[in-house]
Design brief:
4-stranded parallel sheet, about 40% helix, binds pyridoxal-5'-phosphate
């Protein structure tokens, strides 16, 4: 097996992958309607539930061909009965995306907005639930990938269930990185895509959710054809297949990535991401760079760094300098502050981060950016 050039992706997904995952895609051509392929999907569906400690009698996973946003689309358009609304607990770009999806489907919602650098006020969440008995679904984001703030989903979930609503959480940037447990964390639906925590190729997305709730949606208003949860779930149940053509090669890469996930282990993988994140903080501090989210509120998956207040700082130039040397950095997602992000996703470890900071130091010196960074 020839080694493939290794790029260190510090963007928030797709992540750096192993060569074994890359090569897992190279297989003899197969029609995905063959039983052999359906068996692979069946195993993957079971594994995806297991990764979040879901009881297989209670939870299932439903696969879709698309990027992670398709999951938000599916859950928002499929889980809301006629005359009911969605409460979005929103402190960042990804919860705002759920709000946009609701707008596109003309589904009633409450956009409970908080500042991007604070955690949601649970008293306000409870008050909103109390005053709006027509809330059927509550949605939020676990790790707001735009900033790296981690939201207290277990506490929110307890409130949501107290008011008999369904809790959906965008776990795209925590799934298979940070331990998640469906029952312990009071979750009804979580989601992710192949190219983030699982460290596989792009193209497969999935939700893990409560079967009984999915069954209940059978007679709910149908607002989308391609992105309907019940339709896809029911098709899987009846045939073991995706309703339409699956991303065949990506699915082979996911099969391999899941094997590698269990080899590394839930705790081992989490520890590695945290050690990478700590190395990012160390490198950042040495250059005098400043982050924007209180460290104890950070997910450990993203460090969001403010642009230095220096006329020689030009993100594009710094990006290009690093990119040419195999390191990819990524702009932030906050409208009010200019930031860039360094993420601890992917098959990387501390030496990769140390190598990156040597390159970043060089880049800053090359362009005459003051060190330590000025603010
Ligand atoms: C990456 C990500 C998504 C999905 O984004 P796509 O570009 O559609 O893959 C959704 N939510 C969160 C929190 C993410 O980090």
């Amino acid at each position: 097996m020839e080694k493939i050039k290794r790029n260190i992706l510090l963007n928030p997904g797709p992540a750096t992958t192993t060569d074994t995952v890359k090569y897992a895609q190279v297989v003899p051509d197969i029609c995905p309607r063959e039983k052999e392929f359906a068996d692979i999907m069946k195993d993957i569906r079971a594994e995806l539930v297991k990764i979040v400690h879901g009881d297989p009698d209670k939870y299932t996973s439903v696969l879709f061909c698309g990027s992670g946003t398709i999951n938000i689309d599916v859950l928002m358009n499929s889980l809301v009965p006629e005359g009911k609304k969605v409460l979005v607990i929103n402190n960042g770009a990804y919860s705002s995306r759920a709000v946009e999806v609701l707008q596109y489907y003309h589904i009633p919602y409450i956009d409970l907005k908080f500042k991007y650098d604070i955690r949601p006020d649970l008293e306000l969440v409870e008050k909103t639930l109390q005053e709006n008995p027509d809330i059927a679904v509550v949605h939020t984001t676990h790790n707001e990938t735009g900033t790296g703030i981690l939201n207290p989903i277990r506490e929110i979930g307890a409130l949501v269930h107290q008011y008999n609503a369904v809790f959906t959480v965008d776990t795209t940037s925590t799934y298979a990185m940070l331990p998640i447990d469906m029952d312990r964390d009071n979750l009804d639906f979580v989601m992710a895509s192949s190219q983030k925590g699982l460290m596989a190729m792009t193209g497969l997305s999935f939700v893990v959710g409560n079967k009984e709730i999915i069954e209940r949606t059978k007679d709910y208003p149908t607002r989308s054809y391609y992105c309907n949860l019940y339709l896809q779930y029911d098709f899987f149940n009846r045939t073991g297949e995706m309703h339409f053509t699956p991303p065949v090669q990506t699915i082979y890469s996911v099969k391999q990535a899941i094997e590698e996930y269990w080899t590394e282990g839930e705790q081992g993988k989490y520890d590695r991401h945290i050690r990478v994140w700590e190395a990012i903080h160390k490198g950042k501090d040495e250059l005098g760079l400043k982050d924007i989210i209180k460290k104890e509120w950070q997910s450990g998956m993203v460090v969001s760094i403010k642009y230095p207040n220096d006329p020689n700082w030009d993100f594009e130039k710094i990006h290009d300098y690093c990119y040419e040397r195999g390191f990819t950095i990524y702009p932030g997602k906050i409208s009010t502050t200019d930031t860039f992000r360094l993420c601890s996703l992917g098959a990387i470890d501390v030496p990769d981060i140390e190598a990156f900071f040597r390159v970043l130091l060089e880049a800053m010196e090359y362009y005459g950016v003051q060190i330590p960074a000025k603010y």
